[in-house]
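Can you give me the bound-state structure? Components:
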Amino acid sequence: MRAVDLIRKKRDSGEHSRDEINFLISGYTRGEIPDYQMSAWLMATWIRGLSRAEIAALTEAMLHSGEVVSFPEIAGKKVDKHSTGGVGDKTSLILAPIVAAGGLHVPMISGRGLGHTGGTLDKLEAIPGFNTALTLADFRRVLGECGMALIGQTAEIAPADKKIYALRDVTSTVENVGLICASIMSKKLAEGIDALVLDVKTGSGAFIEKEEDAVRLAELMVETAQRMGKKAVALITDMDQPLGRLAGHSHEVIESLEVLKGRGAADLRDLSSELSAWMLYLGERTKSVDEGRELAQKLLASGEALEKFHRGIALQGGDARVVYDYSILPQAKNRAEVKSTTSGFLAATNCMEFGVALAMLGGGREKKEDKIDPGVGLEFHKRIGDRVSAGETLVTIFYNSDTKLAEATQRIQESFSITSQRPEPKKLIRRLVGA
Ligand code: URA
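Here's the bound-state model for the whole set.
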């Protein structure tokens, strides 16, 4: 078999056999197929799509590219959550400590920034010293000691996703239902969990914009999890505007800590509580989702969730003083304001553009080798439905280099749609799949 023939086959709308997919994934993981051929195959796949059989084969090939771990030495249920990604989506930093404080174990394998979205690993690495590249032995130890451990794909666990994810980030090949399903499920099924909660984003800041496509992706992932004997549910949630008020790595660590302290933006608090409730329920810690919600509130109010995050940061080598002293996080030197030019109501945002603007300012990668600037960020002052006056600040930009500031500012400015009529409110949680 030759990679070049498989690229041509997909380019010409062919359907791959399981053997062909195994050849591509194992060859790329071992370094025998170069980035340029994988990039071409990804783009052909993005354009032509994958059948259900191809998606199943790809997910399994990527899952078995590394070890499928289990934790027989750790008693009790292991649960996790994964989001398809959005702007300001930082719930992993909030849920893991809540659910671990509730007595379950959260062995979380996350990703870096992808396309216009920020990644959990990059956010955690804003905390000085935080190590997201634990060895498997340390992953087990930290999980056993504090109930949560957050790492990235490694050479041992989901190595195919580690490489393909980084390539998709910089080749515009993210927004494809089959590639997203394989990427997410290959990591999640490798991490030894009993149950999984999926947060599938829909709207202008999501990879899958239309709600019906998001439902299709959710169904695919829930079915994949169930086929492998895991409990799973997916929440289809709104990404027509950023989640919370802050985007950018240091900023999102701060906003997560605020929620763990019982403060923070209402939408972020609500979604975090709902996702935690489902995790606690699927992990059989509570008898219902309602009870899960109450327990999550209790763990926040008592400070147990915050304490759990403090311990988790320290165990992964991070400077846990960050919990009480945000000044140890990298900060941007400058700020600029984006103001409204008209009056009315904020009717809609082109949310993806906020993520792109943030990436242009240094908060994302354009090439695989690029370093993230964790100090850059955006603060959103208005939510959809809010009244806006001409001259009012819509967004504060925190930046270091002004090389692309003008272009980023223009993108942000043009992403707001302000109308004379107040829009109908939109639900944060649109639907449930697999409940
Ligand atoms: N999250 C992932 O892990 N992979 C994707 O492809 C998209 C979101």
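A couple of observations. The first strand starts at residue 79 and ends at 83. DSSP finds 16 helices and 13 strands in the chain.
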